[in-house]
């Protein structure tokens, strides 16, 4: 049991951060993480002993988040744009504060599938292979979502009003 | 030079430090010839850094009691218990009660544990690595500085988090190389540096389950001193046969650089 606590505990802050970035609301995100942790504790014995605890926990939290997001969008519930600020409800470091807010807004405008990949890779430092495990998708799909997500975010931040469609040729290779 | 075409995947691999050393060199030389692509990569890099910075405060917020692991485990095993009884049961089950009462931050720390796992243990482990590897004239490091990208990738993989190499050249110390070393808390990365006089330093870094954010502390064992600290769950200990006044600014330089990762 202490094994489990020792493996899970250091990951909780990162799981909260990921959930907050997806849910955009502090209490909804913390509820989600709590649910996720309860599941993880309950199913600890089902986990592959040689498996990666981090991917496993992120997968649990990710799937819960996805269900909730889908449920609330089916109910037609709209989150006001101000909620973007809830993501960094501790005001992010001073002079970058405004840029951060813009960036987090732009992040929200991404399709969920791209947002997850961008967050897991850029912020949570999961390897591409781990992201593929978490999302149960092939690694090629991880790469194309990452590529499209980052490019879209870049164009949004550049203020490119009509973001050019990112063509497949542009995606595949640059040489 | 390889003729393998540079792909979009390579660009992201570069941004995410996921390329092996030789590929990294190839991609970088490609970028040197293609400033537009290089500009896009630079944008991705700053985007990555900005996202991390924007979301970092969330992971630093104190955990609400509902997310305390001891409490969750106790609630699972004793669903009938509620409220303070759960918190109290958690303390008992983890055997971590004691003078601090049952306040939640008492859950994960006890002096005995801190001694065997926390910052004091890290300092001792770094000093042990120093004693073993600095004295080794045959093979002080497993991977030498010319394989630094491979070293970083190896360490990051084994530690399960990105490990960065500090640059101490401004203080006259060059990277010699490094290796992964065992600790009771899991793999740690050991990096060794030396200066023109052959003075060697060891930096040991690993994840911290406890003492996750701890100010820098000095400890000396004979002529060998160690400065040890932790930030956001990453522990560092810099060890050398130097007086505290000489080692301290080096440790500060490492901490400054690691803070930017």
TrEMBL record, chain A:
Keywords of this entry: Sigma factor, Transcription, Transcription regulation
Top-rank taxon, per record: Bacteria
Region spans: Disordered: 72-93
SUPFAM superfamilies: Sigma2 domain of RNA polymerase sigma factors (SSF88946), Sigma3 and sigma4 domains of RNA polymerase sigma factors (SSF88659)
Stored Pfam families: PhyR_sigma2 (PF22029), Sigma70_r4_2 (PF08281)
PhyR sigma2 domain ranges (all copies): 8-62
Keyword tRNA processing found: no
Signal sequence coordinates: none
Domain RNA polymerase sigma factor 70 region 4 type: 101-153
InterPro entries in the record: PhyR_sigma2 (IPR053866), RNA_pol_sigma-70-like (IPR039425), RNA_pol_sigma-70_dom (IPR014284), RNA_pol_sigma70_r4_t2 (IPR013249), RNA_pol_sigma_r2 (IPR013325), RNA_pol_sigma_r3/r4-like (IPR013324), WH-like_DNA-bd_sf (IPR036388)
Record family assignment: Belongs to the sigma-70 factor family. ECF subfamily.
Name of protein: Sigma-70 family RNA polymerase sigma factor
UniProtKB/TrEMBL annotation, chain B:
Domain of life: Bacteria
Protein name: Anti-sigma factor
Taxonomic path: Bacteria, Pseudomonadati, Pseudomonadota, Alphaproteobacteria, Acetobacterales
């Amino acid at each position: 049991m202490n094994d489990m606590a020792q493996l899970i505990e250091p990951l909780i802050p990162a799981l909260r951060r990921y959930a907050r970035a997806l849910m955009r609301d502090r209490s909804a995100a913390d509820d989600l993480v709590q649910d996720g942790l309860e599941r993880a504790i309950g199913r600890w014995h089902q986990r592959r002993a040689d498996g990666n605890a981090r991917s496993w926990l992120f997968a649990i939290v990710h799937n819960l988040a996805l269900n909730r997001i889908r449920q609330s969008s089916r109910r037609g519930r709209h989150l006001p744009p101000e909620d973007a600020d809830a993501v960094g409800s501790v005001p992010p470091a001073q002079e970058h504060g405004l840029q951060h807010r813009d960036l987090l807004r732009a992040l929200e405008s991404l399709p969920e599938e791209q947002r997850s990949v961008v967050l897991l890779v850029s912020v949570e430092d999961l390897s591409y292979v781990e992201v593929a495990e978490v999302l149960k998708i092939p690694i090629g799909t991880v790469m194309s979502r990452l590529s499209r997500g980052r490019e879209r975010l870049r164009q949004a931040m550049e203020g490119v009003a009509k973001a050019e469609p990112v063509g497949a040729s542009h995606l595949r290779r640059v040489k | 030079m390889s003729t393998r075409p540079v792909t979009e995947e390579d660009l992201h691999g570069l941004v995410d430090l996921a390329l092996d050393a030789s590929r990294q060199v190839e991609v970088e030389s490609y970028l040197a010839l293609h400033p537009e692509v290089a500009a896009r990569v630079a944008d991705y890099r700053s985007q990555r850094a900005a996202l991390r910075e924007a979301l970092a405060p969330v992971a630093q917020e104190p955990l609400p009691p509902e997310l305390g692991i001891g409490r969750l485990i106790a609630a699972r095993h004793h669903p009938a218990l509620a409220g303070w009884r759960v918190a109290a049961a958690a303390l008992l089950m983890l055997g971590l009660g004691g003078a601090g009462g049952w306040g939640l931050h008492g859950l994960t720390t006890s002096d005995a544990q801190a001694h065997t796992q926390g910052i004091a243990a890290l300092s001792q482990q770094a000093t042990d690595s120093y004693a073993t590897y600095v004295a080794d004239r045959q093979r002080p490091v497993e991977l030498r500085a010319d394989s630094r990208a491979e070293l970083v990738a190896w360490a990051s993989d084994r530690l399960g988090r990105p490990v960065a190499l500090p640059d101490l050249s401004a203080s006259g110390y060059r990277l010699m190389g490094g290796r992964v070393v065992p600790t009771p808390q899991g793999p740690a990365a050991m990096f060794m540096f030396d200066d023109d006089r052959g003075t060697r330093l060891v930096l040991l870094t690993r994840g911290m389950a406890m003492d996750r954010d701890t100010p820098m502390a000095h400890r000396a064992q004979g002529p060998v001193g160690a400065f040890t600290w932790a930030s956001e769950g990453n522990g560092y200990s810099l060890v050398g046969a130097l007086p505290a006044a000489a080692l301290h600014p080096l440790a500060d330089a490492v901490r400054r650089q690691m803070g930017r990762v």
